[in-house]
Design a protein that fits this description.
This protein has 208 residues and is of the alpha/beta class. It folds into two domains: 1-93, Alpha-Beta Barrel (TIM Barrel), CATH 3.20.20.70; 121-208, Aldolase class I (TIM Barrel), CATH 3.20.20. Helices cover 25% and strands 20% of the residues. It contains five helices and nine strands. It has helices at residues 4-11, 52-62, 75-84, 156-164, 193-206, and strands at 17-21, 42-47, 66-69, 89-96, 114-119, 145-147, 175-178, 185-187, 190-191. The strands form two sheets. The chain has a seven-stranded parallel beta sheet, with helices on one face. Helix 4 runs parallel beside helix 5 (193-206). The two termini are 28 Å apart.
Length: 208
């Protein structure tokens, strides 16, 4: 999210999380004043190889409840971040394309609250296309994760299939959240409220 009026509109849809990008090379880079949003919506800062001090400053300034790490942050770094911000959720992002080495996850089992699987592309995020979710059939962890990467309005049926198909076994039950971004935008950082409302309603109505 980037624009105050749009932030208020999307907050009215009561998402579980709202993301704010603090990576100055992104067209969605957030700066300025953040409007009030309901406490039950977790304000999430998105960072790429930021220092612990930088993240702590943003958490304190904006009242962030979660941080999403999109860079090459190590498990030791995540441990240091947890010690500095004990009440803040840590979401560690991993980029996936046609295959993925799940061994990368093991060092983060004790330092991240959630994993997030995004599409490997030119940018750290917001590339606009999905990866092959069948890769996640081999997910070896019991840690809940976010499904991300180019999920758009027309992916509603695919998301529902992922969440309910026996093909994915117990893995789909570990899907904590569906992360949507660029495919719901009319401009970088500006979300289409109507499309998001329709997408959310479809998922919630059909996935019980």
């Amino acid at each position: 999210m980037k624009y105050p009026d749009n932030i208020r509109e999307i907050a009215g849809l009561k998402p579980d999380y709202l993301g704010f990008i603090f990576y100055d090379r992104s067209p969605r880079y957030f700066e300025g004043d953040m409007p009030e949003v309901p406490r039950e919506i977790k304000k999430t800062g998105v960072f790429v190889n930021a220092t612990v001090r930088e993240i702590a400053e943003k958490v304190g300034r904006f009242g962030l409840q979660a941080v999403q790490l999109h860079g090459g942050e190590t498990a030791a770094y995540c441990r240091e971040l947890r010690e500095a911000l004990p009440g803040t959720e840590i979401i560690k992002v991993f980029s996936v394309k046609d295959k993925f080495d799940f061994g990368q996850l093991f060092p983060f089992e004790d330092t991240a609250d959630y994993f997030l699987f995004d599409t490997r592309g030119k940018h750290p995020g917001g590339n606009g296309y999905t990866f092959d979710w069948k890769v996640l059939k081999d997910y070896p962890s019991g840690k809940p994760f976010f499904l991300s990467g180019g999920i758009g309005p027309e992916e509603g049926n695919n998301v529902l299939e992922f969440l309910s198909s026996p093909e994915y076994g117990n893995v789909a039950g570990l899907c904590h959240a569906v992360d949507v971004n660029s495919r719901f935008e009319t401009a970088p950082g500006y979300k289409n409220t109507g499309k998001l409302k329709e997408f959310k309603s479809k998922i919630l109505c059909q996935h019980q």
